[in-house]
Every structure is written in C-alpha cells, then in structure tokens.
Write a structure and sequence with these properties.
Number of helices: 0
Oligomer: single chain
Helix content: under 10%
Largest sheet: 7 strands, mixed
Number of strands: 11
Order of helices and strands: EEEEEEEEEEE
Strand content: over 45%
C-alpha cells in the first residue's frame, strides 16, 4: 500500500507554469506505475499522464501532450508533473495515483 500527498498547486495566469509534486510513503514506491488525473468542476475525473515503474515510458492525454511532463524520482519517493503553457481549461483538482491509492488532490487554477 502507498500513501500519496500532492503539493504545488496554485493560481497562475494563462501561459504560466507550475510543478506539482506527489510524495509517496508506505510500500516500495519504485514498484508502482504512477499517474496524474484531474477533475474540473462538474466533470468526471480524467487521465492526464502516466509513468511506468522504471521511469522510461510515459503516456499523456492529447490535451496536455507537448505542454506537461511527468517524471519520478524513486530515490526521493516523489512523482512530478511539470505543467507549461497552462490554459484556463487546465483548471482542476489534480490527483496522483498509484495502484488503488489516490492522493487528496491539489487545486490548479489558471486565469485568462
């Protein structure tokens, strides 16, 4: 079992950048594929990005491809999401996920 805690959200203007972090504790972090999801008000939670346990393979939603980068540091038990060229439609609560575990979420708000 892995416990996940997100941080790094906030308010940013369109075109700006944020880096989200997800600190993991519990069982071996490096054994898990990890991902980021987001949920905007009134919408279902959606996939954003995923990184396999080795860190060598990543997947992105089309809506963020080329703007967001997922990475992980297994030595620090931390998952990251670098978000560049942010758009108002990126506004959502962002969650990290590992196995069946979810963090509590961090709010990202992008103003136009």
């Amino acid at each position: 079992q892995v416990q996940l805690v997100e941080s790094g959200g906030g308010l940013v203007q369109a075109g700006g950048s944020l880096r989200l972090s997800c600190a993991a504790s519990g069982r071996t972090f490096s054994n898990y594929d990890l991902g980021w999801f987001r949920q905007a008000p009134g919408k279902e939670r959606e996939f954003v990005a995923r990184i396999l346990w080795s860190g060598g393979v990543t997947y992105y939603a089309d809506s963020v491809k080329g703007r967001f980068t997922i990475s992980r540091d297994n030595a620090k038990n931390t998952l990251y999401l670098q978000m560049n060229s942010l758009k108002p439609e990126d506004t959502a609560v962002y969650y990290c996920n590992g196995g069946s575990e979810w963090g509590q979420g961090t709010q990202v708000t992008v103003s136009s």
